[in-house]
Specification:
Elements lengths: L13 E7 L3 E8 L4 E9 L4 H15 L3 E6 L9 H17 L3 E5 L3 H9 L13 H32 L10 E4 L6
Parallel strand pairs: 1-4, 4-5
Antiparallel strand pairs: 1-2, 2-3, 5-6
Helix pairs in contact: 1-2, 3-4
């Protein structure tokens, strides 16, 4: 999962997991010592990457998180397509702006897995279709659950690497990046 200790004055213990979308960012919080990740919040994308970075810095400060794990939307064959390139560029800019170490994690099927875990959206009044606000709330919940799954996969892979085991549901698509590699 990468060396989260680089450039950080104290050992990294808490990590933010990110599921980047066009409109929303799902955020999860993980604890490296406990090896657990949990959904935290879903935030609306800012107009700029710098705006997203400011929001994530605030969240990281509030949660005492010191590193980022960003889901990388690889194509089905494991290659990086246009969306992965955009995500990588966004993540590198956010990491540079925040000064936080960054690791990428394959996020293929994370939203599908999150939807399976959460289930269908609630029915609307009188059993009808869900309202627009119910749909939005359900999508936001899926985004933060997907972030938790991405982060949990990363934590599991880190633990397995430390014990030389292969974790379940894992591919070897974890990539570490240092924010100062942008030059």
């Amino acid at each position: 999962m990468g060396d989260f200790g680089r450039g950080v004055s104290e050992p990294v213990r808490r990590v933010l997991g990110i599921d980047l979308g066009e409109k929303r960012i799902g955020v999860a919080l993980g604890d490296l010592e406990l090896g657990t990740a949990a959904p935290l919040v879903t935030i609306r994308r800012a107009r700029t990457t710098q705006g997203d970075a400011r929001t994530l810095v605030r969240l990281a400060s509030e949660q005492r998180a010191q590193a980022l794990v960003v889901g990388l939307p690889l194509d089905k064959d494991g290659t990086e397509g246009p969306q992965a390139k955009l995500t990588r560029e966004w993540a590198m800019a956010v990491a540079s702006a925040t000064g936080m170490p960054l690791t990428f994690r394959d996020e293929r099927l994370s939203s599908v897995r999150a939807e399976e875990r959460i289930g269908s959206p609630p029915r609307g009044r009188s059993g009808g279709p869900p309202s627009a606000s119910q749909r939005d709330a359900h999508r936001a919940r899926i985004d933060r659950e997907a972030a938790a799954l991405i982060l949990q996969d990363s934590l599991d892979a880190r633990r397995a690497e430390a014990t030389n085991q292969t974790p379940p549901n894992q591919s070897d698509d974890s990539r570490s990046e240092k924010p100062d590699d942008l030059a």
